[in-house]
Amino acid sequence: MQDKIVEVNFGPQHPSTHGVLRVKVKLDGEVIVDAQPIIGYLHRNAEKLSEMGYYPKAQIYVDRLDYAAALNMELGFVLSAEKLMDVQVPDRALWIRMMMVELNRIASHFIWLGTHGLDMGMLSPFFYCFREREKVFRILDEITGSRLLYNYFAIGGVYSDVTPKSLEMIKTWLSDFDKNLTEIENIFKKSYVYVARTKGTGKLGLDDTISYGVTGPMLRAAGKKWDLRKNKPYLHYDQINFDVPSQQAGDVYARMLVRIEEMHQSARIVAQVLDKLPAGDFYNKKYSKPMLVRIKATGESYIPTESPKGEFGIYLVGDGSAIPYRFRIRSPSFANLSAAPAMLIGYKIADMTATLSSMDPVFGEVDR
Amino acid sequence: MIPVESEASSKDGVKIIYVAKENILQFLKEKKDEGFDYLLMITGIDYKDHLEVVYHLLSSKSGERLVVKAKTDGEIDSVTSLWKGANWHERETWDLLGIKFNGHPNLKRILLAEGWVGHPLRKDYPMEKKQYVNLKEDGYDSVSFEKKEGY
Q1: In the beta sheet, which residues pair with residue A324?
Q2: ipTM score of the complex?
Q3: A213 and B83: CB-CB below 8 Å?
Q4: What confidence tens digit (pLDDT) does each residue in A194-238 have?
C-alpha cells in the first residue's frame, strides 16, 4: 500500500483546543508530519479599541484578554500606565495588588489543571479543581464584587479596600489549601496512564524555547529558572520569600509539576502579604476618577510582569494627549503558541491534546 | 559596528536605539551575539508621515532590556533567520499595520481573514466601513463589504 499524507483539521470547535484554536495537521499514518496553528477566530483588535479612548477606559479591554487571570492582565496595564503618567501609588495598594494577582494566578492554574486532566481522560480532578477554584472566586467576589472580570485595579491604586471578612476568608482558605492541592497533585502523579502519556511528550528544548520567545511555566519546565518576580521585581516581590520552581525535561509532565509548585508558592506569597499588609490609603487621593481621564502623557513605557502564562506587558506610547497613541499588548500565549509546530511534529496524533493543553493558551489573549 | 542614528530612554529606564532600516538585520545580529537572546515582540507604530518598527530585546543572562527602532516607509528586512519567534510577530505587524518584511517565509495575514482590505492599526483606517467574513461554498472564507449568507 502506498504511503499517503492525510490532512486533518483539528478545531476550531474541538473541546480539547481550549477555545477557538484550529490546527491543520498533516498525518503520515498516526505520526504528525506538519502542524500549522491557525488563529484569529476571537480577534476583536483590542489594541485599536484601546487607542480610541482615554487611558483608564482601556482597562475593560485589558480585562478581557486573559479572562482566566483578569487581574494579572490589569496589573500589566496599570503599572505601565502609572509609569507613563508618573502617578504615585500608596504602599497598601501595592500589597493588595500583589495578593490579588497571586490569588488569580492560583485560580488560573486551577482551571488549567482541571481541563488538562479532562484532556488526558481524567474526569475527577476537574471537579476537585473547580471546587478549589470556586473558593478562590468567593474571596475575589468578596473583595472586588465580581467573579471573572474584575476591573478592580485602577491607575493610582485599587477601587476598594480589602474587608476584614475577606481577610478571614483568605485565612480559612489558606489553612487547608496545600493539603487539598497535594491531593489533586497525587491523582495526576499516581495515575499510570497520565504519567505514561505525558512523560517525554511535547518536548521543547531550551534553545528552541528561547528562540520562539516562550516565557512563563513552559520556560521554567525547560530548565531555566527565570521568573520576572525574582529577576526584575515589581510591586514588593523583593520583600517576599518564595521559590521559583524549575524542571529539566521540558515535556508535558514537567510543565504540570512546575505549575503545581507555582500554586504552592503563590499561596506562600498570599500568606506573607497577610502578615505584612500595611495600613493606609488604598488609592492615591490626588487622582479622582474624572481627573484620570484628563491626564496627558508623553513618552513610552513597558513594564513586564509575570502572568500565569508568561511575560505580559503593555507597551504604551503617548503623544501628549489623554488618549494612548500606541497600545501594544505583549501576550505570552501568542508567543508560546507559535512554538506549537516544534512541539507537535514527530509525535503521534494522540499526543496532540496533551501538548496543546500543556501550553495553556487562552484565546482572548492570543487573538486579542 | 553598525552606526546608531540616535539614542533615547523610555520612562521605565530602558535604552532605545534608532537604527537605519537597511542595517536592522545586521544590527540585531550583533546584539544577539552580544547576549540579547530573546526577541520579546515586534511591533509597529504609525506616525502618519512614516512608520516605525519596534523590536523589544531581552538578555536572559543579565536581564537587561533593549528597544531597537527603525523608521521605514513600509518595508524592512525580516529577522526570522535570527529568531524563530519573529515569524508570527512579523505576520501580525504585516496584518495590522501593513509593514512588509522582506525575506519572510510566509508573510500572510494571521489574525484577520485573508482578503481583508486595509490594515486596522493604521491611523487612516476607515473605522465606519464594515467588512464581513463570509463562508464560501468550498468552505473557505471570503471578505466583502456586504453581508452575505452565512457570515
Answers
A1: A318
A2: 0.86
A3: yes
A4: 898 888 888 888 888 888 989 889 889 988 888 888 888 888 888
